[in-house]
Design brief:
The protein is α+β, with helices and mostly antiparallel strands and 191 residues long. The protein contains seven helices and six strands.
Length: 191
C-alpha cells in the first residue's frame, strides 16, 4: 500500500472511529480530517461543543486519548491524532503536550489533580503491605469461614487487594461503600 493511500485510510478510519464514539455519547458533530505535519488533525464542529470539550477540556482530552489508543492498537504506524473543537485547541485550551505525548515540565496536569494525586500518594499504603494484608485476610476467611472486611481505602489500594486475590479459587472480593473511600469485603466463594 502506498504512503498516500495508507494516510487516506488512516484518516478515514480515525474519522469513522470518532464519529462512532460521539454517536455512543449521543452527540452530533461534523468532522473534517487533515494532515498537519506528522500528525492528523480532526476539526470538529458541533452545537454540543461545550459538552464535547467538557470541564477544563477534560472530555476532549479523554476522547483524544481514547481515539489515539484505538488507532495505535490497530496500526502502530498511525500518526498522533489531535482534536480541535470549534477552535478550542488553537486557543490554548488544549494540547500542551510535546510531540512524544508527554507533558512539558511544570505543565500539563491541573494543580487540583496534582494536589489530589499527592494527597493520595501520602495516604496510600505501600503495595507490599497491601498484598500481605490481602493474603492474611484470605487465610483468615478460609480458616474460619467468615467474611473479613478491610478498612476504607482509596481506589488504587482496593485494586491491589482485588488483583492479589483474583486468582484464588476459594475467595471473592467486593468493594462496598459510598464515595472514593470504600471497604473491601473478602469472602468464601459460594458453590
Amino acid at each position: 500500500m502506498s504512503d498516500i493511500s495508507k494516510i487516506e485510510d488512516q484518516k478515514a478510519k480515525a474519522q469513522k472511529t470518532l464519529a462512532v464514539m460521539l454517536d455512543y455519547l449521543g452527540l452530533d458533530a461534523t468532522l473534517n480530517v487533515e494532515e498537519k505535519g506528522s500528525k492528523l488533525a480532526i476539526k470538529v464542529a458541533s452545537e454540543d461543543a461545550g459538552r464535547i470539550i467538557g470541564r477544563k477540556g477534560q472530555t476532549l482530552e479523554s476522547l483524544q486519548l481514547l481515539l489515539n489508543r484505538i488507532m495505535f492498537k490497530g496500526d502502530e504506524e498511525c500518526p498522533r491524532i489531535m482534536l480541535d473543537i470549534d477552535g478550542y485547541a488553537r486557543k490554548g485550551g488544549k494540547d500542551r503536550r510535546d510531540d512524544d505525548g508527554s507533558a512539558p515540565e511544570g505543565r500539563g496536569e491541573p494543580r487540583e489533580r496534582r494536589e489530589r494525586r499527592d494527597r493520595r500518594d501520602r495516604n496510600s499504603v505501600p503495595e507490599e503491605q497491601l498484598i500481605s494484608q490481602a493474603q492474611d485476610a484470605a487465610k483468615e476467611v478460609k480458616r474460619w469461614g467468615q467474611p473479613v472486611t478491610l478498612p476504607k481505602m482509596n481506589a488504587h489500594d482496593r485494586r491491589i487487594i482485588h488483583i492479589t486475590l483474583q486468582d484464588d479459587p476459594e475467595i471473592t472480593t467486593q468493594s462496598e461503600g459510598e464515595g472514593s473511600l470504600k471497604k473491601v469485603v473478602i469472602n468464601l466463594k459460594k458453590d
